[in-house]
Amino acid sequence: MTALLSTINLAFHYPRRPVVFNQLSFQLNRGDILTILGPNGIGKSTLLNCIVGGLTPTAGQLLMNNQPIDQLTVRDRAKMIAYVAQQTANQTALLVQDYVVTGRTPYLSFGQVPGVEDYERGEDALEKLGIIALKDQPLNTLSGGQQQLVTIAKALVQAAPLIILDEPTSALDFGRQQLILELIERLAADGYAIILTSHNPNHAFLLDHQVGLFAPDGHFTVGATQTLLTATALSQTYQADLKLVYVPELGRTICEMPHRLVSPN
Ligand SMILES: Nc1ncnc2c1ncn2[C@@H]1O[C@H](COP(=O)(O)OP(=O)(O)OP(=O)(O)O)[C@@H](O)[C@H]1O
What we know:
Elements: E1 5-13, E2 19-28, E3 33-37, H1 44-52, E4 59-64, E5 67-68, H2 74-80, E6 81-84, H3 96-100, H4 116-128, H5 144-157, E7 162-165, H6 174-189, E8 193-197, H7 201-207, E9 210-214, E10 220-224, H8 225-228, H9 231-238, E11 243-247, E12 252-256
Parallel strand pairs: 3-8, 3-9, 6-7, 7-8
Antiparallel strand pairs: 1-2, 1-4, 4-5, 9-10, 11-12
This protein binds adenosine-5'-triphosphate (ATP).
Residues 14, 17, 20, 38, 40-46 line the site of adenosine-5'-triphosphate.
């Protein structure tokens, strides 16, 4: 079977800076979820940026359906990959519904304005994310978490088979985190492939698909959550003493910090 996305021996370094990653390979098919974990500053966003074309890998290949991604036009790439960058405050005064519908740009010809169907898709996405009530509000009047949900809605209307989410839950409360993780599961069940980054290993345990784990030396390993995420691997990754606990009520393992952060004398 042809993989939707293949990264083959990918390497990257910023100009005059050390290597961020090297010999990085993995494949992703429709229906797959890859949760990327790793310490701060290790290269998670850089890897995503290479995949979406914001950065050019210094070595290796990136293929989409066996075709080099850099041979796709910008428009075709946008039809294949929807990308939600790490959350920063968005100062645009566009109304939420008008902003979300810009996700339809790859499907519009030059100068064509979005039509009723595009707006309906936008409303659908806002409904899915539970924020339809915000549709007439200017984006720059929303909270960080609300903006994060809006940018995910924009990615959904792009209707690309690969959705890349850089820390999609970073600004969200517990309930909204659950909503996004459920949405990711539903999208995968509908045949989308999803790559997300997270600082919370429990997101990987909850999603229970594939994990991409950056070690502190930049080495990247991909595997099934249950196999790859051992207490030793996670403690090494985060340079912390972490415990894995099986919780019968949840029917799964969770990752926790030790009971006491500082032992009593
Ligand atoms: N534009 C840039 N120029 C030079 N170095 C950069 C640039 N952007 C990032 N870096 C460096 O590349 C490395 C990887 O950064 P990246 O943002 O990919 O890490 P990350 O794993 O996403 O981090 P975090 O979890 O903190 O968001 C870091 O050492 C960072 O300082």
